[in-house]
Amino acid sequence: MSKENPFLEIKENTLHFDRVNLLRSVAANFGTPTYVFSENIIKQNLLNLQTAFTSQYPQTEIAYSIKNNMIIDFSSIIADEINYFETTSLTELLLVEKLAQQKNKPLNLISTNLFKPDGLIEHIIDFGNQITREKKNLQMSGIIAIDSYQDMKNIERVAKNANKKAKVLVRVNPGIQMSREKTIFASAYPDAKCSTIIKDIQPIIDLSQNETIEEWLLKRKHSPKYDFAERIIQEAEKSEHLELLGIHGHLGSQVTNIDYFHHFFEVITLFYKLMEEKLGRNLSFLDLGGGYPVQYSIKECVPSIEEIAVSLSQKISQAKITPHLIIESGRFVTASSGLLLSKVTLTKENPSGGKIAVLDMSVYSDLLDVIAAKWNFDISLVNDLPERKDETKEYSWDLVGATNDTLDQLNPINYPDNPNIDQRSFPRDLKPNDYIVITNAGAYTTCFNSNYCGRPKPMIVLIEKDKNIRLINRNY
Ligand SMILES: Cc1ncc(COP(=O)(O)O)c(C=O)c1O
Question: Which domains are delineated in the chain?
Answer without folding.
Answer: 8-38+336-471 (2.40.37.10), 83-329 (3.20.20.10)
